[in-house]
Amino acid sequence: MTKQHQNRSKGEHIPRRYDTPPAETITPPSVHRHPVLPLVDIGSRKFEELCRDIMRQVYPDHRIALKRRSGQDQFGVDVEGFDELQNPVTVVSAKCYKHIPAWEFRAWIEDFTKHLEGHWKGKSVKEFIIAVSVEAK
């Protein structure tokens, strides 16, 4: 029995931290009052790029960059928004899954906050955003 299976059998949840591939075909938007795009279909890498592009629109005075580089630790973040002094003041953790139970948010927040006294210390982070591919209530 794997350690992951043992933890789950004791009632402990293990959050997802893996890439999701794009779908072979894109699901048409829903036909609700407000059409919803099936963002999960684009896969996690394109979802991170979409988050970067949205940040560029929302924070036009920031330099926006993906944190995904080969061999580089991410410290709970996928996209960084830098101020004029090159401090990462706004950071985004992008999660692209079809269904997201509420308990996973806590684990993803901890993925970021456990680095506050280390990597992020003194870096002027003012906003931590979790961007998800599904509506969360």
Would you summarize the structure shown here?
With 137 residues, the protein is of the alpha+beta class.
Which terms summarize this structure?
137 residues; alpha+beta; 3 helices; globular; disordered N terminus
Mean pLDDT: 83
Which stretches are low in confidence, meaning pLDDT under 50 for 5 or more residues running?
1-9
Query: How many domains, as an integer?
Result: 1
User: H/E order of the elements?
Assistant: HHEEEHE
* CA-CA gap between termini: 35 Å
Tell me what you see in this structure.
With 137 residues, the chain is of the alpha+beta class. It has one domain. It has 3 helices and 4 strands. The chain has a 4-stranded mixed β-sheet with strand order 1-2-3-4, sandwiched between helices. A hairpin with a 5-residue loop joins strand 2 and strand 3. The longest helix has 16 residues. It starts with a helix and ends in a 5-residue tail after the last strand. The N terminus is likely disordered.
Please specify the SSE layout and strand pairing.
Layout: H1 3-9, H2 43-58, E1 63-66, E2 79-82, E3 88-95, H3 103-113, E4 127-132
Parallel strand pairs: 3-4
Antiparallel strand pairs: 1-2, 2-3
